[in-house]
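OP here, attaching both records as promised.
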Amino acid sequence: MKKQTKQRIAALVIVVIFGMSSIAFVVGSLAGTPQEDKIKPLENFVVEGHVDQRVEDAYYKGGFSWMKFYYTDKNDLLYLSVDQFPDIFKAPNGQRQLIVQKLEGNESYVYVYSLNGQEELTVPTEEQLIESVCRVLSAPPPDCAFLNQTKTNNTNSNNSTI
């Protein structure tokens, strides 16, 4: 084969490859490729039931604290009070930073976590729960400092002798 014929065949092969690649691209875009489901933001900062793990992870990575509240009785005072926690524990700039997830369970149990740490409580009191949330929040509100100061003062006054 002549050199010129070899060059023409090589050029034709390259053109055919580029042409087929372009056709595959057009057909693929017209047929549509499956896209990953987009993560939908939560509608409320208090959620009843299970949440998609990807949503939970996205909020966690975004700096939110997460409370999983397992309950046995919907009429329990603690069950009713945790609804206010996202508003009570706002960051100093006024932004909500806590998501409460209520899950029915065999016993009362709370798991609170954030980038700042994690705490687990079995059959917690409201005071214990508030203290745990204050310790775990990335940006605790001023009330948490007041709570810690009051608790320290009470402990010191109980330990002092007259």
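Record two, same layout:
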Amino acid sequence: MTQENLPSMDLTYEWGRTAPEQLSKEASSLDTKIFSILVAANIIIGVMVALVGKIRFDLTLVPFSIASIAFLTIFIKSLLSYRTRWLYVCDSPKILEEDYWEREPDETKRIYWEFLKEDFENNLEVVKIKGQTILLTIPLLAIEVISLIVWVLLISY
């Protein structure tokens, strides 16, 4: 591919400039999902605790224990991934003025492009961690629901 066939610096700069912000929005969306899973897990364990009355050391303890372990795992994993590290969107105007005001436009874009790549990589890592949390907590929430159903069936007999 010759140099003329490559996208221009201006075009790629415009495309890449918004990438860290898009990942920041995705991370925010994943935070909402993680929070929803955590709320559902809290409700399920709260229902079980409200209905338990007193702990019986028989077969009903097994699904209650499984639900409790699932809840604790969801709780800990959600808290750890809720804000794993800072998300970067853009620099403040003051920093832009101090660092780039007197540079040539192409030089500024090249330097700023390096910061955009770092910000993108950071935000991508945050999104991956949050995605992994959702992949872990959804099955645990299902286990908690199944444990609740089994537990209710056992205590009703």
